[in-house]
Write a structure and sequence with these properties.
Layout: H1 14-21, E1 32-36, H2 45-57, E2 63-67, H3 73-82, E3 89-93, H4 98-107, E4 110-113, H5 122-128, E5 133-137, E6 153-155, H6 159-170, H7 173-186, H8 191-210, H9 219-308
Helix pairs in contact: 1-4, 2-6
Length: 309
């Protein structure tokens, strides 16, 4: 089932397009090519730049706008500079405002998307929302539903094929406009329409199941699937129990540590108290011994004086 996009099927007003693109060199009457997405080599950006280099060598005028950022942005910019494309290639950086993206889609004559990495290519349908046709790799995931020369343009996965297609289209701007309208009519799908299509599809699947279209239910297969589900549930329960046990163990360890700390503190307090009591006892014993010695000295002195008188 094709995905929908969150953009309305219409171009934005010319005044807003002019406002968004005012800071860039985009002369009237000069074809404008557009790429929107992450600036990564695997998006087919080298194919675009090499094809543009071919146009340059034949002195064909155009502007190429890259909207977005990415891990390869610095290298992509440097590659364009070394190829001598500076005057015709524009890098805007990332743009998150959806209305500004609509302005770029509306300003572009062609959307270039030579990527075989993307599994759907929503940007192709976003471009179609502004009646902008896309140039796409033949048999790529993004080319699903695209008919060459009717609602889009298909090329081989190389710069020569893209350059050839662009030269052909620069000589026939009427074809660009006609195919752009075809893209809007046949490729554009709103989110509301996509949800409605999904609902109808699921409803048909349910009706087919109830009417036996999918054949008799295989109890053995059903039992196997059920057993697999039960096994996954058991494994999940084991993992949950393991985490709970680990958490309980951590809590128990914390409690034991706290108890040991408390016992140690009590033992330390008792030891200090005992030491204090021992010190007091020694002092008392010392005083008693001193008093006893003084008493003995008094008795000895008194006895001595008594004998000498």
């Amino acid at each position: 089932m094709p995905n929908g996009v969150d953009l309305p099927h219409e171009k934005v007003p010319e005044a807003f397009v002019s406002e968004v693109t005012a800071d860039y060199d985009l002369p009237d009457g000069v074809p404008c090519f557009l790429f929107i997405g992450r600036l990564m080599w695997y998006k087919g950006l080298r194919i675009i730049l090499d094809a543009l280099d071919s146009l340059n060598r034949e002195h064909l005028d155009y502007r190429m706008v890259f909207v977005g950022g990415g891990g390869d942005e610095k290298e992509v910019r440097e590659y364009a500079r070394e190829a001598g494309l500076d005057s015709k290639v524009i890098f805007t950086g990332p743009v998150s405002d959806r209305e500004k993206l609509r302005a770029w889609y509306s300003r572009a004559d062609l959307f270039l998307f030579p990527s075989t990495f993307d599994t759907n290519g929503l940007v192709v349908r976003e471009a179609a929302a502004s009646d902008t046709a896309a140039v796409i790799i033949k048999d790529s995931c993004a080319s699903e539903g695209v008919s060459d020369g009717r609602n889009g343009f298909l090329i081989e996965e190389n710069a020569e094929s893209l350059a050839c297609k662009l030269k052909e289209l620069l000589a026939c701007p009427e074809a660009i406009q006609r195919v752009g309208r075809g893209a809007g009519e046949e490729l554009y799908i709103s989110w509301e329409a996509a949800v409605a299509n999904a609902y109808d599809r699921y409803e048909a699947v349910i009706d087919n199941y109830k009417s036996g279209v999918y054949g008799r239910h295989d109890p053995l297969k059903g039992s196997w699937m059920q057993s697999q589900g039960e096994l996954m549930q058991i494994l999940g329960d084991i993992e949950t129990a393991r985490k709970e046990l680990r958490r309980s163990g951590e809590e128990l360890a914390g409690e034991i540590d706290m108890s040991l700390r408390s016992a140690r503190n009590r033992a330390l307090t008792d030891a200090i108290a005992a030491r204090y009591e021992m010190g007091q006892s020694i002092k008392r014993m010392g005083r008693e011994a001193l008093e006893g010695l003084e008493s003995l000295l008094d008795e000895v002195s008194q006895s001595f004086w008594d004998r000498t008188r």
